[in-house]
Amino acid sequence: MDFQSCVNIKKEWDIVGARQLGRDIARKIGFGTVDQARIATAISELARNIYLYAGTGKICFETIEEMEQKGIMILALDNGPGIKELSLVMEDGYSTSGGLGAGLPGVKRLMDEFDIHSEEGKGTEIKVIKWLR
Amino acid sequence: MRIPILKLHNYLLISIQIDLDDQTAIQFQEDLLSKIHESGASGVVIDLTSVDIIDSFIAKVLGDVVTMSDLMGAKVVLTGIQPAVAMTLIDLGIHLQDVPTALDLEQGLIKLRQELEE
């Protein structure tokens, strides 16, 4: 798929850069302040996961316009070690980094659609969508 | 980037007005604890009126700094959390239950006075 814009995640500051760009795109699509905050927070969690667990990767954004629906799709990609226990990371409170363990289950609640593919030794791909209501 | 910490009588006042990155948040944690130690402040208000995103990391840093300050003997109140931020935190599953909060700076100072029974 051809994405509108991508942010490479290499250093910690890129987490802020990614969520700011995502928020701008969300505002342009027409999302209100609460959904803008939800989208920016989800991006922050996804970008931090890339930075913490894979080292580098990227976050891509795409505006979706279907017949009667408009929304934002965010793709988080990395070539990191992958996630061994997918069901564990989707549990609230599970963390290997001393964090709150709110990241991925939180992202799932913040967004409308959540899709994760991960292969050990190859990387992780997470696709999320928020629809404009 | 450093977040300014102001002293007012025996309180410390902080207004966070930037988009917090992880490093700045950690630096702030250290700065605040040193400032409490240096100044002997008994109360702290951290105003979040201008903060439009708190993710799980920033929430952890803020929650931790409240507990750390408490260990040192200073009470912290968080003020001005925006509606969108409050909704997002709950979606994330973060409840910050043991963290004292108030609507704005003024209410925060009143709460501090009550907590410290001054």
From TrEMBL, chain A:
One Pfam family cited in the UniProt record for this chain: HATPase_c
SUPFAM superfamilies per record: ATPase domain of HSP90 chaperone/DNA topoisomerase II/histidine kinase (SSF55874)
Domain Histidine kinase/HSP90-like ATPase, residue spans: 34-133
Signal peptide (from-to): none
InterPro entries noted in UniProt: HATPase_C_sf, HATPase_dom
Protein name: Anti-sigma regulatory factor
The organism's taxonomic lineage, starting at the top: Bacteria, Bacillati, Bacillota, Bacilli, Bacillales
UniProtKB/TrEMBL annotation, chain B:
Record domain STAS: where: 1-112
InterPro entries in alphabetical order: Bact_StressResp_Reg, STAS_dom, STAS_dom_sf
Superkingdom classification of source: Bacteria
CDD domains reported for this sequence: STAS_RsbR_RsbS_like
Protein's recorded name: RsbT antagonist protein RsbS
Species annotation: Halobacillus alkaliphilus
